[in-house]
Each structure stands twice: as C-alpha cells, then as structure tokens.
Design a protein that fits this description.
The structure holds 2 protein chains of 2 kinds.
Chain A (H helix, E strand, L loop, with lengths): L1 E3 L2 H10 L7 H7 L4 H5 L17 H4 L41 E2 L2 H10 L9 H13 L30 H19 L2 H13 L14 H16 L5 H14 L4 H14 L1 H4 E2 L5 E3 L2 E6 L2 H13 L5 H9 L5 H13 L30 H13 L13 H10 L9 H22 L4 H6 L17 H6 L5 H4 L20 H4 L8 H12 L28 H8 L3 H15 L16 E2 L5 E3 L7 E5 L2 E5 L2 H9 L2 H16 L8 H13 L2 H7 L8 E3 L4
Antiparallel strand pairs in A: 1-9, 2-3, 4-5, 5-10, 6-7, 8-9
Helix pairs in contact in A: 5-6, 6-7, 7-11, 8-9, 9-10, 9-11, 10-11, 13-14, 23-25, 27-28, 28-29
Chain B lengths: L7 H4 L31 E7 L5 H4 L8 E4 L2 E5 L21 E5 L1 E2 L22 H6 L14 E5 L5 E6 L6 E4 L4 H8 L5 H22 L6 H23 L14 H4 L11 H20 L5 E6 L10 H5 L8 H22 L13 E7 L14 E4 L10 E4 L15 E2 L1 H10 L4 H4 L15 H7 L16
Parallel strand pairs in B: 1-9, 1-10, 4-12, 5-13, 6-9
Antiparallel strand pairs in B: 2-3, 3-12, 4-11, 7-8, 10-11
The chains are: A mainly alpha, B alpha/beta.
Chain lengths: 694, 473
C-alpha cells in the first residue's frame, strides 16, 4: 500500500469528507447519480428508494395526491445547526453544543411506561403490566434512523434516538397507551394498593396508604410519588394541585376512574415524553449554559446508559443530592455501567431497526442494560438488522452459488445462512467490546474467524477453515480458547465479512459498499440523490456484458461529470471490495450470466483503488488493505466517536461539541471502545445543558 | 394459556354464523342519525396471508369452459366450480355467488417478501390504499372512532401491512395484536362518561404543553417542537369532540362495551386452537366495529410465530415450486376455512337496507407473493367477496392471464395488479382525483428495471388507471 497526496482528490476530500455542509440544497442538487446504485441491492426491500419529492403524498396532497393520514402539523421547519466540521478542543471552548429538547425514543418510552410502575414497589408490577402497555405501545411509530440535520433521506443512516419527529401518531399513541395502561392498572386492586403504598413511600415522612378507597391525602401523596417517577422530578406545587384537581373531577364517583385518568395524563405529559432540562443553574452566569439539576442528571444518565428512567437507587441519589458529588456520581455511574438490573428491561428487546430482532433468539438473560444498549449502538451503526437476505428467487444468484456451493441457497437454507453471517458481525463487535476490549482499529482490521453457523460452505474458499475446524457456538467461545483467524490479508477487518459484502443478487454492488463506508465509517454526509434532477434512465443498472466487470460497468455509467460529484468519492471505496463476490466469497474473476442463467463471461476483477482518507489518496489493492487504511485514518476514528455521540445524545454533533468529542476520541483510540462507552458520562459536558439560540 | 371467552359471545349473537343471523339493525333502539352507519356505507376488509401459495394448490388444474370476454380476459361463473376453485378455496363454495376468484394479476415491479405490496406499497414510497380510504372524506364525512382497524399478528416486525406518508416519510403503521387492546381502541370513548373524562385529560395535557412552551429557557427550536406537539394534541382534542357516537345497544353493537370486552390475556396465542380462536375474535371485532359504525376500513394479517406453526410454515411454503406439500396445503386450507370463511359468515348478515354487511363491503384475501418457493409476484393470489353495495359484480372466475404471452400463469403474463387497487379504491367511493399522483394514472408503482418485464407490461400500462374488467360494474 502506498500513499500519495493527490491534489484533486484532496480537494474533493476537503469538500466532502469533512462533514462540513454549507449548502445542503446545493449538495442535493449536485448529487444526481448515486440513488439507484445504493438502493439496488435487491429487487425487494430497498428502503432507500428515492422519494417522489414534490409529487410525494404529504407534499403534494393539495395538488391531487392522496391525503393519507392525519394532517401533518403545519409548523415552521426546524432548522438545525450544521454538523461540526472538525473535532478540536482548546481552553475556553464550550463543554458541549446546544442541547435540543429530545423526545424519548420508542424504546425509551416503552421502558419508561413499564418501569414507572416498578421503581419502589418490589412487586414487579412493571412486568405484569407490561403486556397491557406493549399491546398499545405498538401504536407509536417506529423511530426512523434519519440523521436530522444532514439532509440524508436514507432512513437508516442514524440511530433511533436521533429521530426527533413529532407526529399525530406519537400523540395518539401516547394517548392510547396512557388510556390502556391506566385502565389496566386500576382493574387489579392489589396493584392499586401496592402502587399507592410504593408511591407514597417515596415521600419520606409520609405515611403509606394502605386502605381502599384511598383518602384524599393518600391520593395527593400518590400523585406526588408516582408523578416524581413519571416526570422524573418532583412535581411543583402548582402541578400537584392541578393533578389533584383533575383527579377530583374525574374520580368524583369512582376513585379508580380518577387514578386511571391521572396515569393517562402522566403518560402524555411533556416531561414524560421528552427530556426536559430547564431547571438547572447557570454556569458562570451564562443563561445559555446550565448545570443540570440532580433529577435532570439522573434522567440523562439513565436514559443514556440504560434507555430507561432512573431506578430506585439513582432516584434516591438524586433526591438526597449525593449524585451531585463526585463520589456519589462515580458510584452511580459504576453501578449503572457494570451492574445488572432487576427491572423488566431484560424481557424487552429493543427493536433496533423496525425489522425487529428475531424473536426466536431470546435475548441473553445475563445481559445487563448497558450491554443491551451498546449492542443497539453497534447494530444500528452497522445496520446489522437492516440488510436484506439473499434474493434467492434470483436465478442468476442461484447459478452463482451453485457453481461452488450447490445447496447454499436451497429453499429453507438461505435465511439460516443469512442469520449466520449476521451473527458473525455480532460476534466480532461483542468480542472486542466485552471479551477482549479493543479499539475501533482492532475491529476494522480483525482477522478473527467468528463465524459460528452450522454450514461453513460459503467460506470454504478460505483455506483456514478446514485447518481451524468448526467453531463452537460463539457465546461459549467467549470463554473458550482463542478464536482462529483467517490468513492475514485475506479477509482483514469487519467489513470484509460476507454479511457486508452480499448484495442479494448475482452482481456486487460497489456503490452500496462504498456508500456504507463513506457514511457509516467515515461520517461523510453523502446526501441522497434528487431523482428529478437526473437524466432519463440515469438510475438504471448498467447492462451486463460478457467482457465487462461490474466495476467497469459502474465506472462507465457514473463517468459523466455530474455523477462524479459523488461517485468520485463513492466508487473507489466500493471498488476495493471487488475481490469478493456478491455472496462474500473471495474471487479473482467475475461470472457474467446470460439470459438462461448460463455463464457467458468471466472477466478478471480489479480491486485496486485509490481512496482518499484524511485528505490523502491511499492506494490499496483490495478490501483488506482498505480496512487497514481506514483503521489508521484519523477521520475514521473520529467518526466512530461521532457515531457514538449521536447515539447517546440523540443529535448530530455541532459547534461546541468539540471538547466532548475529543474526550471520546481519546478514550476510544487510547483505551478502546469500551472505555469510550464508559467515558461519555464522565465528560464535563455530560452534566450540562446548553440552551440553543432563542 | 386459559382463554376466557368474550362475553362478546352475547353481544355477537346474530354474527356468529349464517344460521344465527338476525336482522341486527332492526333492533337498534337508539336511532340517532349520527349514531348509525349509513345504510349504503361501504366497508373494506383486506386479509393478508404470507409466504405465497403453491401453484399446485392455487391454480385450478381443470377449468370449465371459459368465455372470452375481452383481450386476454376469460370468465366462467363460479357456479361451474361446485367443489371450489381449488383445494384451498373449496370451503368458499356456499359463498360463490358473492365471491370473485381472480387470476392473472401481476405486480409489475416484482416484490419478494414484503409488507405492503398487497395494498399498493411495492417497496416504494407509496402509501397503502387502506390509508387512502381511511383518510378520505368520501369514506368518512364524520370523524369515526377509528379510521382504520389494523389487526393481526406479524412476528417479523410487529407492524401491519399498511403504510402512510402523512409525515412526509413512509411509515409502516402498527397493528393491534391484542384482541383486548383492539377492542378497547374501538370502544375507547363509547361510554359518555369516559368520553368526557378523556376530553378533560387531553385538555389538561394541552395546558401542560402550553406551560412548557412558555418556559423562557427553551430555545427557538425547542419551542417549535413543543408547538408542533401542541398542534397534535389540539387535533386529538378536536377529534374527541367531533367524533360520531357509536350505535351502542343497537343490533349486534353491544350496549355496554365494558361488559363485552374479551378476556384473552396474551397477545400471542400458544396453540393452534388458540390461534383459531384468536383470529375468530378478531373477525368478530371487525364485524362489531362495522355494526357500531366505529370504522369502515379494516385489515387483518395472518402470520404465526414460527414456534407455533406446525413444522415451520415458512419453510414448507418455500421448499419447492412443483412438489406436493400436504402441510402447506393444510395450513392454507385452515386459513381459508377458519379465518376467511368465518369472517365472511359473520359479515353475511342483513343490515337495514336488507342487503348484508358483506353485500355492502368488499373483502379481499390476498398474499404478499404468489408462488412461495420462487417468491414470485405474478398471478397474485386474489379472492374477493362482496359487491361493495353494487359497485362490483360477483360470482366470477376471471382470468387476466394472457395465454399468448406465456404457457404458465405464474410468470409474467397477467395484467397490472394496480387495476385491482383502483377497483378497490373506487368501490369505496373514491375517484381518481382522490388518489392519483400528478402524471401518474392509477395507483401504485408500475416500473421495472427488468427489460423483459418492462416490454411485456408496456402495452398494458395505458389501462392502469382503469378498474378491472368484468368485476367492476
């Protein structure tokens, strides 16, 4: 591998690879040729198809398109600040950027809705009521994974927590969840009694309620106690009076109706649905920089690490103020980070993709909440649950597989193989997080053979497999002897695993591979294309030719200057993986199929490429070399910190976040990924709220 | 799991089957104009099952004499299939006069496994037609209790097969898995005291957001978020106040929904028997919701958790294109007889006009794909019931398969599925202006990157905005 500065590419890199987007509209206009290519992994299931733009339903409803769904609130567009261009930190810099009002993610809402009943009672009421909550919780829309202020319309580029959408479905959903939960709660008088006792016991010095129907004082205590958990802070006197007043109105003849109504209102409350941080103390007299209150800090900590509301111990630390001491904070942080939970989260897998985690693989009961959340980070970052399986009805793909592995895509087998390839990715990031904590670079260059499927046929082209023998199931392997490795240089790095390489059909998709690296690994904010600005047929796959490789066809297709605006960046990255076919197997030549699925050509592949990293053109021969180059890239390592930042804070990094990101970057590159996951809550900015422009 | 049956059994007397049929609307005691569904109200039900149908069992192996009624259009009365069109649909024979069996409808883009394809989302940015209906003022001149009742179990993603674009991005809508939860949703404001309480709660919630909006520490963007939320709360307030009351106590509509609530505990039934009951409960709920005027649009998806499906439904459906598989046959027969037929029976009960709910409805049973093993999207399995209040003919076996184009009906050779979508939309009273996009006639995507498919379908696309011949009146 040799590196050489390349002025033209470096210019492009400055323009593109640094996520400085000064004119999003201009970029959208320029990005004319990428669209089809990244979405063409298979005929089915692309979630990245171009939107119809002005002809889209919502936008064009008035122009005769179907008005589908409740009317979208006609509110001004929220303009988010631009993404932080460069990560740096110098004395005097702000500890963090503006902190927007954040809606809880769907997973966080679910956990809050269940565990709000489960804080002090010891009755595991939360898990009992969970079924009722969950049946209605499904009505809340899945969070899209859109990165909010980048213009990337691809819905799975970001994380569930970055979805700041507020729609009618969210409000209706919270209404019906609240109604159902309230109704479910009051139908069991033992629950009511238990919760009345638990809630009032939160209020020290207050006598717990034990009689039904409850007295007026008991109700007031219940609202105060339950409300403190629901709103994640004590109610103000005015709020308490207002809730009591509503209870009296609703419960005049039926105290259960009153209680049910109170719960419904809490479930719709802004303090329940959002992370509201408005009560802090100004720092250095600045009205735009607030030190979080103990309750706000508890809430942020718990939501960041557990996707959940504070548990009893954390709530208690917030109440007695110990959380605001260095020692008390460290104690809670370590407990939350390292400890398990008796709460119900272990039975509730976070739906990371909208595709749902496979229900047949029950979550590891031994997983701590932090492990679940960090798993979600990796899964969303790497789109582990967003890839589609083999499109095995594609007869050319079957022909490709049949050539060496005749039964690989047979009916009933392809899903199993897909799952095994998916699991290999999970195994690798889990290994470098929990078993042998490693760095981002370790993950990007690993040669570990973590495939644990039952049929390694696909990988038989790798000589080491036969020598290494079959692997035991990975979760046992975590404590088993060291994993074998692929021969160095053959399949180095996470992204050279078949899961990332498979396209779904018989040809590779170098554009999709390139876009994945650029967006997910290098944080290049490649916008989605504007199909209306493209020439006719621009998005169609270049036609096959017996003598042409996929690389050659795509290179020719995207050669026009308009296309090169993006494809000068995308193509070289994707072409480096051309030494793997669309099933993820190593190859030296590409098979081209004819109309009857017969091989009509086998041109030699070329995976050498010149990829711009950190403003320098790097020559690589194949995917492994590219991964080593990426591992050494400052931009890529910074991107990893950026991605985790986005996941934790539910927003893109902006001006003012440089110091916090620097901390994460240092932790990740110095001590490894796990340390970065831990470190985030130790950064000074984590305890602060910065008010955005008013 | 112990399943305590609906005391809705009481409330559903008259809907339990043809033999129990009662003139349910005649017994309505409260005939408030708003409370009653209009006599001609047309209703829509889409039933979707998954993993396709095996050609061997779906396409009739022997056909009666078919009448050529147009270019590549052939028809025979369903009465000429006394034992049923195919081994799966044999149980429908008593309803042949109110049914259509449609052959030769192709999804032009091709789909593979999908969610929304049956109703027009061909893995693109097109909402499904049930949502177009649900938010049409032609279907709902007055706010209903629930615009679309999306039901059924879907282990793959927990969602329905309905999609909306209301927020500018494609959103898969959730489905109610739980009968209880769905029941509560339908009747959430049935009790006037409950309705008033809900309005009170939402009014207070509105005040809560107003309070937050006035907090001086919010940024400009934060305030916009709160204002957006306030708008949605306001819309909810409006809906609660303008919603048409239900026809409680009238005919099959329970007078006291709280007493009719099903008592099924879990959302996931755990045995075949429970699955059967689970879907019957959902069918009952659809009919009750129609009878009460709570909704006019419902969808029901039929997918079981793998562990509860005998020998893995998905695996069986995909094992071969041509070989027999008795298990797959049995499963699809079971779906037809235990779910689809049960719903049809329950709907075929007279309402005020003298026609039955079924007559005034259009029920379509479809699938995500055609041949499971090949994941094909041609000759999509389609069975329709009801005449949509006279907008559709019934009693037809119709084949749109172009024999001249191919010898096999399950590869490219039919007409675009889009015409079925148009037929369904118009059967609910919608017109082209209500669903067409500028410059795009009909409904749903119709482009393909496959040159062979594109060449075949090209001459058919000029009819894409038209209703299906023979079936549409």
């Amino acid at each position: 591998m040799r590196c050489q500065p390349l002025e033209g590419m470096a210019t492009l890199a400055r323009r593109w690879i640094t996520p400085r987007i000064t004119s999003l509209a201009a970029l959208l206009g320029m990005s004319s040729c990428t669209g089809y290519l990244e979405s063409s992994q298979s005929r089915s299931g692309s979630s990245e198809l171009p939107q119809p733009g002005a002809a889209g339903n919502a936008a064009a409803g008035a122009a005769g398109s179907p008005a589908v769904g409740p009317s979208d609130p006609n509110q001004p567009t929220i303009e988010n600040p631009p993404v932080l261009a460069q990560i740096s930190c110098k004395p005097g810099d702000d500890p963090l950027g503006p902190t927007p009002l954040k809606r809880l993610s769907k997973a966080q809402y679910r956990n809050a809705a269940i565990n709000v009943f489960n804080l002090t009672g010891g009755q595991r009421l939360g898990s009992e009521i969970a079924t009722d909550v969950l049946t209605n919780y499904a009505l809340i829309p899945e969070d899209s994974k859109m990165v909010p202020n980048t213009g990337i319309k691809t819905a799975i580029t970001g994380f569930d927590k970055t979805d700041s959408t507020v729609s009618q479905y969210h409000t209706d959903g919270s209404f019906f969840v609240g109604l159902a939960t309230g109704a479910s709660f009051v139908k069991n008088l033992a629950w009511v009694k238990s919760e009345l006792q638990a809630a009032t016991s939160l209020l020290k010095g207050t006598e717990a309620c034990s009689m039904l129907p409850p007295s007026a004082g008991c109700i007031r205590n219940f609202i105060a106690g339950f409300g403190r958990r629901a709103l994640r802070r004590p109610l103000t006197q005015a709020e308490l009076d207002d809730y009591v007043s509503m209870y009296q109105e609703l419960g005049a003849g039926d105290y259960l109706a009153g209680l049910s109504g109170v719960i419904t209102r809490f479930f719709m409350s802004p303090q329940f649905l959002y992370q509201v941080e408005v009560e802090g103390t100004p720092v250095d007299g600045r009205s735009d920089l607030l030190s979080l209150t103990s309750y706000e800090l508890a809430s942020r900590l718990s939501l960041a690490l557990h996707d959940d509301i504070p548990d009893a111990a954390l709530d208690s630390a917030a109440e007695d103020g110990s959380l605001m001491t260095d020692e008390g904070y460290a104690k809670q942080l370590e407990r939350l980070f390292n400890g398990g939970s008796e709460r119900t989260q272990d039975i509730l897998r976070t739906n990371v993709s909208g595709d749902s985690l496979n229900e047949t693989t029950a979550y590891q009961s031994s997983y701590t909440p932090v492990q679940i959340v960090i798993d979600n980070f990796f899964n969303q970052w790497l789109k582990v649950y967003s890839n589609k399986s083999f499109e095995y009805s594609n007869l050319n793909l079957q022909a490709l597989a049949d050539r060496d592995h005749p039964t690989y895509l047979s009916a009933g087998q392809h899903h199993q193989h897909f799952n095994a390839l998916q699991q290999e990715v999970i195994n690798l990031y889990s290994y470098y997080t929990w078993k042998t904590p490693g760095t981002f670079a370790d993950l990007m260059t690993t040669a570990k053979l973590a495939y644990t499927g039952t049929d390694p046929a696909l990988l038989l082209d790798e000589p080491s497999w036969g020598a290494g023998g079959a692997e035991p199931p990975f979760w046992n392997a975590l404590s088993a002897p060291p994993m074998p490795s692929y021969p160095a240089g053959q399949r180095d790095g996470l992204l050279n695993r078949a899961f990332f390489l498979m396209s779904g059909n018989e040809t590779t998709n170098p554009v999709r591979r390139g876009v994945f690296v650029q967006r997910q690994i290098l944080c290049n904010l490649l916008p989605s294309p504007d199909p209306n600005a493209l020439p006719d047929r621009a998005l169609e796959t270049p036609e096959a030719h017996p003598d042409a490789t996929t690389r050659g066809r795509f290179a020719a297709k995207t050669a026009p200057g308009l296309c090169q605006t993006c494809h000068a960046i995308i193509n070289p990255t994707g072409f480096a993986f051309e030494n793997y076919d669309s099933l993820g197997r190593s190859r030296g030549e590409e098979l081209v199929f004819g109309a009857n699925h017969e091989v009509v050509g086998s041109p030699r592949i070329d995976s050498s490429s010149s990829v711009v990293l950190d403003g320098v053109a790097v020559e690589v021969k194949n995917g492994s070399e590219l991964m080593h180059a990426v591992a050494g890239s400052k931009l890529a390592n910074e991107c990893f910190a950026r991605q985790y930042f986005r996941f934790v804070f539910g927003r893109t990094e902006t001006e003012g976040d440089g110091c916090l990101l620097s901390d994460l970057y240092q932790a990740s590159t110095t001590n490894g990924m796990l340390d970065m996951f831990h470190r985030v809550a130790k950064t000074p900015g984590f305890k602060l709220h910065r008010v955005g422009p008013q | 799991m112990k399943m305590k049956r609906f005391s809705r059994r009481h409330c559903l007397q008259g809907l339990g089957g043809v033999t129990l049929a009662l003139p349910i609307l005649e017994s309505f005691s409260d005939r408030s104009a708003l409370a009653l569904p209009t006599p001609a109200a047309t209703r829509f039900v889409a039933i979707k099952s998954y993993n396709g149908q095996r050609d061997l069992y779906w396409n009739p192996t022997t056909l009666p004499a078919l009448t050529q009624v147009g270019e590549a259009i052939r028809r025979a009365p369903l009465s000429t299939f006394p034992g049923g069109v195919n081994p799966i649909c044999g149980c429908f024979a008593p309803y042949h006069s109110k049914m259509n069996f449609v052959q030769g409808l192709d999804v032009v883009p091709g789909l593979g496994h999908n969610r929304g394809g049956m109703l027009g989302n061909f893995n693109d940015y097109t909402p499904t037609i049930d949502q177009v209906m649900a938010y049409s003022s032609k279907v709902y001149p007055i706010e209903p209790a629930i615009r679309s009742l999306l039901l059924g179990y879907a282990p793959a993603d927990g969602g329905s097969f309905s999609y909306t674009m209301s927020s500018g991005t494609l959103v898969q809508l959730p489905a109610y898995r739980s009968v209880q939860a769905a029941f509560d949703r339908v009747f959430f404001s049935a009790n006037p005291a409950q309705a008033r309480a809900q309005q009170t709660i939402v009014d207070r919630v509105y005040q809560d957001y107003q309070g937050l909006r006035s907090n001086p520490r919010l940024s400009k963007n934060d305030r916009l978020v709160v204002e957006r939320h306030l708008t949605t709360v306001q819309e909810l307030q409006t809906r609660l106040k303008t919603q048409a009351p239900l026809a409680l106590g009238s005919g099959s509509c329970p007078s006291d929904p709280s007493g009719a609530r099903p008592v099924v505990g879990a959302e996931v039934p755990s045995s075949l028997l429970e699955i059967e009951q689970y879907y019957r409960d959902l069918c009952d709920l659809i009919v009750v919701a129609f009878a009460c005027g709570a909704t006019k649009v419902a969808t029901l998806q039929i997918e079981f958790p793998k562990a509860f499906t005998p020998n893995d439904w998905h695996g069986h459906s995909h094992d071969s294109e041509t070989e027999p598989n008795p298990v797959e046959l049995e499963i699809n027969q079971w779906i037809a007889a235990k779910i689809v037929l049960e719903l049809i029976k329950r709907l075929d009960v007279a309402e005020a006009s003298g026609a039955t709910y079924l007559d005034n409805s259009v029920v379509v049973w479809g699938n995500e794909i055609s041949i499971g093993a090949a994941h094909r999207s041609e000759n999509m399995p389609t069975v329709m019931f009801g005449s949509a209040g006279g907008k559709l003919t019934t009693g037809n076996f119709v084949s749109y398969w172009n024999e001249a184009a191919t010898k096999v009906p399950t590869v490219v050779g039919g007409r675009p599925y889009n015409q079925l979508l148009v037929t369904l939309l118009q059967s609910m009273g919608l017109e082209a202006v209500d669903y067409e996009r500028p410059g795009q006639p009909g409904y749903g995507g119709a482009s393909t990157t496959d040159p062979g498919r594109a060449a075949y379908y090209a001459p058919l696309l000029n009819q894409i905005g038209e209703r299906l011949p023979v079936i549409a009146v």
